[in-house]
Amino acid sequence: MTIALGRFSAGQTTYIASLNSIMTTLETAINGLLAATTTGTTTGTGTGAVGLTEIWEQNGLVGASSFPVTCATSQTLSVGSGAAWILGQQTMPRATSAVTLTFAGKASGVYAIITDGAGGLSISALSATVAGSSLQIYSVQFNAPNFGSAARLVPILFQGDDHQRMLSSPIFGSFARVADRLSALDNALTVDALYAQSFVSATSWSYKSGHLRNNNAIVSTTAGTLALAASATHYVEVAISTGTVSYATGGWTASEAIAVRKLVTSGSVVISNEDVRTWAQVAGGGGGVAGLANSGTTDGTWYLYRGTGATSALPSTATIVVDRGSLTDVAVRYNATTSKWQYTNDGSTYFGFGEIAALDVGAGQTTRVTLVASAPAVLATTTLSTTAATVLISLSGLVSTTTTAVWLRGTAFDSAMASLGTSAEPFPGVAFYRDSSTITANAVAKIYADSLSSALERPQMVLIPVSNQRLEYNAWAASDASLRCSVYLVGYVDLVTGPGPQLVCATVTGLTASVGGNTYALSVGQFSATVNRGLVYLLEVSATMGAGSTYDVEVYENSSVSTGALLFQALTIDASAAYTTRLPWHVRDTLSAQVNHVRISNMGASAGLVSLKWVGDRFA
After folding, report:
1. CA-CA distance, 320 to 344, in Å (whole number)?
2. Are residues 588 and 550 in contact, defined by beta-carbon separation less than 8 angstroms?
3. Per-residue pLDDT for 456 more than 70?
4. DSSP label at 565?
């Protein structure tokens, strides 16, 4: 069809006549187009197309995603956006956003969700007939104050892009024609139909027949129906020994069942329907073929290389191999000749479990803390001046030749402290060095005189490296002969060579700290820092106690909890903050019971709880 329109030329004076001729031509063409594509009748809501009437010969929802219904609350429904086709009116009412419909105040009964010719959604009594401009799209069973079932009243009509989506699927790929894809589906339905859903209505779920293999037997199941529980999650399974289809509401059951479907109900409406069938055949299982097979009973037993007969001979070896790609495979096997389980780490040489082919315990070097019970004085003087030269302290006879560090406890007191005030920097004290070659501005460790009160001497702990069983010190004070200092040897650290230690980390929580004290014998299972001996180099303690509370933590080498058995001690710990020390200390159980003897002394006014964590090495 072509249209010839007149043209204007220069000097022309019949503009009106020419323009009217052009308009007549256009009018004729447009009317012809309308006559070819429409009925020529109109309604108050629009004009319908003849083509759509021929394609959609019934009322319905345009596409499966139109007007989806979900339960928002116990008395409200949410209806999503979508479009519908009303054949008699040749109109397509359309909603672009979701609408919430409330049933609050309505009596129990069956209602309809309708759409008017403009796409509006509302609730109405279910009726056999409705106004020509409206369409009932859902029926809803309302059992006040809750919903029962909901059912769609009109079919799903073909949507514009439905055809394109029908040409491909994630499982079967792409096709040139819908018929080709349907053929592929037909070929797959033979297996896919096993235990498939056949029908669901309210709380009734029906399934198709099926059959499965249980070792050397084929188990068949006839089609049936399950009555679902209201407002529950249903785990539908088929028992491999009997073929019985049933469900549990607490989760999937034993391994002797195959998962079929997972259904969730809200009231008496199925709101989630998930196909979870997974058909898996363990390679070589049953059927008289050597391989891995289930026993066919409920004991959960599996067999390696079990044939059809109960007396089938076992091959010389039955092996489980780990495929490591480009690396050599490793394996575990049962050797029927020697009647032993064996393993290989190189793919060729097998060792029996419990056997050690070539024991090679590597030498490890670690530190050992030795506590000096008498804590002898290594420095005790009342007149140390600020001009005193560096002085050597010999530890010969107190430590060993392998000692690398000593643990000192000391105090410093400056008789002129009161005149200095709290602004004195640095505070008077004593600095310790490994030897004279290490004297620098930053000493190895220092003990300061108390900076708050000249009447107190607060003990301090320091860990100091030593060289050749000796260390050196340098003192300073406010004035000559104003500083006195006392230092005692608490323990020393040696280098130890032997079998390599094993790193361990253990935590115990919720230890009751009664007012006064509690003693605990913490076993390996609770506080597994060591077996019978080891070295701890990190201890963390936290407490929950009353405001202002303090507590002590002590570790002993046996249950006597006496001074001579003391291994570690942390005193007057502030319960409001976590306590951490990285000072290494030796831990052991002289009773060889693999028990750590811990005492917690609570100085507060009320009971509390204490948690401990320690990290260290336990020795072979």
Report:
1. 11
2. no
3. no
4. G
Q: Which CATH class is domain 367-495?
A: mainly beta
Q: Which tokens hold the place of 229?
A: 């529980």
Label residue 409 exposed, middle or buried (CB < 10 Å: 0-12, 13-18, 19+).
middle
* 431: β partners: 446, 474
Q: Is the dihedral of CA 62, 64, 65, 68 positive or negative?
A: positive
CA distance 466 to 438: 11
Q: Are 570 and 513 in contact (CB under 8 A)?
A: no
Count CB neighbours of 516 within 10 A: 10
Residue 340 bridge partners (DSSP): 335
Give residue-wise pLDDT tens across range 422-437. Answer: 554 456 777 787 766 5
Tokens of 424: 């004195």
Q: How distant is the alpha carbon of residue 164 from its chain centre?
A: 40
Q: In CATH terms, is domain 501-618 a member of 3.40.605.10? A: no
Residue in 207, 197, 199, 103 with CA at minimum distance from that of residue 148: 103
The C-alpha atoms of residue 346 and residue 327 are separated, in whole angstroms, by 10
Query: Does 223 score more than 80 pLDDT?
Result: yes
> pLDDT tens-digit profile of 571-598?
999 999 999 998 888 887 777 666 778 8
E-state strands within 195-301: 197-201, 204-207, 210-214, 217-221, 224-227, 233-239, 245-248, 257-266, 269-275, 292-294
The CATH architecture of the domain made up of 54-157 is: Trefoil (2.80)
Query: Regarding predicted confidence, which is higher, 558 or 591?
Result: 558
Cα 169 from Cα 188, distance rounded (Å): 13
